[in-house]
Amino acid sequence: MIRALPGNSYYSGALPKGCVHCKSGRKLVLFVTGKCFQNCVYCPLSIEKRGKDFVWADELRVDADEDVIYEAEMIDAVGAGITGGEPALSIERVQHYVGLLKSRFRYFHVHLYTTTTVCEHIHAFEEAGIDELRFHVPPRFWENLERSPYKKVIESALRTDMHVGIEIPVLPNKESELCALVETAFNLGVEFVNLNELEFSETNWESLRRLKYRTVDDVSSAAKGSAELALKILKQFSDERVHYCSASFKDAVQLRNRLLHRAKNVAKDYDVITEEGTLLRGLIYTDMPEKMRRKIIREFEVPKSMVEIEPKKGIVLIHPGVLTEIAKHLNASCYIVEIYPTADGLEVERIPL
């Protein structure tokens, strides 16, 4: 039976536990390295991460263990998805962070993505405490999984206590190869197959264009034909556990829910949380921020907690509703901004007053 999810996503059977937590926005994305021994043309990793041997917890660059714990707490995490690059190239980090998170939080679920074909890596993942292992099989092996190096390593993983699945992007011109992969995977005994809508990114755009792929329209990053093929495969294997995850589901559901959790935990008194999980705040640019803050508190009787100074930039931060009312009385540049409540504070919109 095929069931629908928001954002035009669908699945048959039970959703993998990692997907359940991700859907709720309470799954920490733990990026353990940008190094990888694959060279996938569709890899969406940013220039900031690709090939770089750093650790990120969501949008937060990790310099200490406390950073990972902090980010997990800020999104009310009940689990983590470990990714890269290739996590198998940083086994010690995987072991360290899984141990750190599971010792700090009770019932913490961890899934991990890998392209490895080395059985020793599988045993290391199991010893580290990975709950769910997701193999990213490169396209060149899709049609002949039975005769590929992945057969042995998948069978090795299936002998562990980890839940084992496959997760791949849906390349629009690879129908027969994808169907062969899914069929062989279930014959081998994997528990689930996740099909991701192919997406264009800043770093894979040229490669995908050279392969004749195109976006659905001028505003979407999704590849034309990927969703249709994913649904066709899902219908063909509707008696198995198959999950099609769309690009819109990732943005409208997963990301939105994570933003809402984080916004609730990081918002200041001068912030307003939107329905999308972003933050609205007022900005005042002035050469004398402390004097401006005192003036606002004294003359307009604004609570101190609703007016603060951003010390690094010397900007006055203020509740947007308050700033809208008093901006005309201030001799300064005033704006209402909308930002993500994430570590990088991505600015979405800026409106001058």
Structure description:
There is one protein chain. The strands form 2 sheets. An 11-stranded mixed β-sheet has the order 1-2-11-10-9-8-7-6-3-4-5. Strands 12, 13, 14, 15, 16 and 17 form a 6-stranded antiparallel β-sheet that branches. The chain is an alpha/beta fold and 353 residues long. 34% of the residues lie in helices and 24% in strands. It starts with a strand and ends with a strand. Helix 3 (91-104) packs parallel to helix 4 (119-128). The chain has 2 domains: 2-262, Aldolase class I (TIM Barrel, Alpha-Beta Barrel), CATH 3.20.20.70; 268-352, 2-Layer Sandwich (Alpha-Beta Plaits).
Helix tally? 11
Question: What is the helix/strand order?
Answer: EEHEEEHEHEHEHEHEHHEHEEHEEHEE
Number of domains: 2
Q: How are the strands of the largest sheet arranged?
A: 1-2-11-10-9-8-7-6-3-4-5
